[in-house]
Amino acid sequence: MWSTNLNTSINSDGGFLNNTRKDGQGGNVQRVQTLIPVTIKLLHSISPIEDPTFWGIKARMFTFVGLIRNVEETATKISYDIEDDTGTITALKWLEANKQETDRVAEVNTYVRIVGMLREQNDKRHILILRLLPLQNLNELTNHILEVIYASLKAEAKLNKNRKLKKNTTNDVSNEDDLHYGMSSQQSLVYKIIYAQNDTECGIERSEIKKKVPKSILSDVDNIIEFLVSEGHIYTTSTDDHFKTT
């Protein structure tokens, strides 16, 4: 994209950039640096800002592309109002004591890529600029949009995979419980309907059970209740048609 010591591209792991350095004993120390491509709207939607997380990924730094709409310069900092198609945010660049050539002010109506960290002061969010680079051509803008889409889709796929694994684990536990009680899925359903009314004085009445079950097993409810009674899973209360679980 352009030559810089800070890699702003996204790898196949959805934004994690691995840097390896040598420690004092000559061994390798792994440091994970998270740089996530975003739109300005996404920057405003992060919560909480103290420990920002994007798509389940802890985020330390962000990169985005926008158009400079306003510039204010003081002796200690340069303030940019940056706009993209999704919103506007202020980006601050603090100046060194001896102003360098790299601290020159970017011009209004110039497209730039910014790498920085999200901050908040007086309930207003801004970006602390680590790197500001003018775009060489609009292909870089298109590339950034694709990076945002790619990162969000990949992260969403990971989240869905984790949810599916969690759901399967929950289902496995539920199935183990049903097998433990020697129940089929239909018997377990009726049992749970009865169990939900255990706090009432007389439990639940047979006709109410039939109202709560799917129509596909309605004709089997009486047989299921008889099975649950015979196995000691439920018992009658005030009448032969009122039940509670044991």
Automatic annotation (TrEMBL):
Main location: nucleus
Keyword Protease belongs to the record: no
Coiled coil residues, start to end: none
Record CDD domains: RPA2_DBD_D (cd04478)
GO annotation (BP), single: nucleotide-excision repair
UniProt keyword terms in alphabetical order: DNA-binding, Nucleus
Compartments where found: Nucleus
Keyword Transport: no
Domain Replication protein A C-terminal per the UniProt entry, residue ranges: 161-238
InterPro entries from the UniProt entry: NA-bd_OB-fold, RFA2-like, RPA_C, WH-like_DNA-bd_sf, WH_DNA-bd_sf
Entry GO MF terms: single-stranded DNA binding
One Gene Ontology cellular component: site of double-strand break
Pfam families per UniProt: RPA_C (PF08784)
Family the entry assigns: Belongs to the replication factor A protein 2 family.
Name of the featured protein: Replication protein A
